[in-house]
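Narrative summary of target 7.
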Amino acid sequence: MIRDLPSTSTREVSKELLRLRNSVGAMAMGRVLTLLVSVDDEHADDAIRAANDATRQHPARILVLVSSNSRGKGRLDAQIRVGGDAGASEIVVLRLYGELTRQQAAVVTPLLLPDSPIVAWWPAAEPADVASSPLGLMAHRRITDAAGVPRPATQLRRRGKHYVAGDTDLSWTRVTRWRALLASSLESAPFEPVTSAAVTAEPDSAAAGLLAGWLAAALGCPVTRVHSAVGTGLVSVRLDRDSGPIDLVRSEDGSDTATLSGVGNNRPRLVALRTPTLPEVLAEELRRLDADEVYAKTLCDGLPRVTQGGTRSEAERRGRVPGHPPKVDAVQQGLGSKDLTGREASDSRDEDRVRALVDEGLSQGRTDAPGPEVRAHTDRSALAEAVADALAARVDAAFRDRGIAHVVLTGGSMGSAVMTALSARADAGRLDRAAWRSTHLWWGDERYLPTDDEDRNDVQADAAGLGDLPVLKENVHRVPGGADPARAGEAAARYAASLAEQSLEGQSVPAFDVVMLGMGPDTHVASLFPGLPQVREQESTTAAVTDSPKPPPARVTMTVPALSAAHSVWLVVSGSDKADAVATATATHDDPDVPASCVRGRRETVWWLDEDAAAELD
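Modeled conformation, tokenized:
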């Protein structure tokens, strides 16, 4: 619902809000903050859309102050948006004319929510001293965006001079993923100090300036800003150490990936480096209302210490910054094992020796894992019902113990059957709503196809009733899709990044409560097929498959270490065509030619079978 109030007053706006509240409902109930947006006509529409999207996670009263013609007669035009036109929030757009353009605080004060935090956001131009401005003085948090103003370097220096606790900038939020990757890269051997650093980016990149300032403040070493061509954005970061540099270089093909080299075994690897949207970075800042001490140190202490290091071409010639991203050998990466570290390169060319070494690595550290348990049921329907009951109980227990649950779903006919059984329980009110709203859902593998393709596991789960479960949309973690099989590796990297973001500190995957897996007649699980190198992958949590023996050829899969990090691994199998595979897998341990034998839970491994699938067991 949209209500226009031309040539009005804040008193009339308040009255109309009250009338709408009585007719539509108590709109202010559940609002967690007031978001003030100060913007000009040119940027108003984009700012309103971004604020609306960002506050879906943080329901707010959004008061948009649009400064129009400041020379004419003072006038206030208002528009109120509620319901479907405002998402989870309520939006009041106040267009100011004449003298009112200089009286924003006075205009907005009668419309503030009582006893709620106030956040002020300037999407483009902002006052020279943000914290001391009339809107800044009434706000608990003040958000600016140096990327949206001329001469961002000058603006950042000014903000450092006038910084007050509670100030932040969206350019800082945009480099969160860069900072996370660089920080984690220093947690691997050889644990040497960084002697210098270089950040390469276009001259007016506010994000690059803040990233360089963060490195200077955090590492205490010389940091230089190297200038690339206009329009290239943030290109790369080099951290120099005595044993060699760590390089993080954004991909040049426009994808949301980068190449990280100089970490661990020194092989370049592809990592997810997606640039967040404006609503996403705004939502991230709305999650916290306390002062950002790291940003303060970056802005006030680190940024003034950054020096200018000339052009990219010159720095590349001198070897001070990385050049083009190194090529990532996906096959070599898939064959990697921690047990090969230190081996001579000639050893890696001997396929038989490599297989023996990796097989040895798979078996190490697994002798204490619990043995498998078999639970057989009469038929496929009874099997699906039993798994659904057990999964619901496991989610309830995890919620009681930790307040959160992580479940990995499987595809195929049994995955759909279990989802249908869960959907029926949701419809009957038999799923604990609070527990499932705190549950995160993942997939052990996915066919790399467009996101709406009916052959995808998640699309089949949707068709089987996933939407009936009381799970928050943002807690359903889908594998990125696409039509170009060559980009499956990028999807795998992005999915690995999603796993890491939901993990405990120091871990690369969440604490999965249950991993459900189907199994094929060839004993493959997820998209880990006999004879393919992904079965032996020990370094990464995800892998791309480009030559699957089962169509489609391109897939994304979790690896054995990621799946085996679960408390419980449940292999859910039905049908007589799987009976021989079940007998082989249950009698085998850690055989890469029998992938189902390689995945075991840390606390339990359960084979959920119908009588046909269990027919060949002793």
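The chain has 21 helices and 24 strands.
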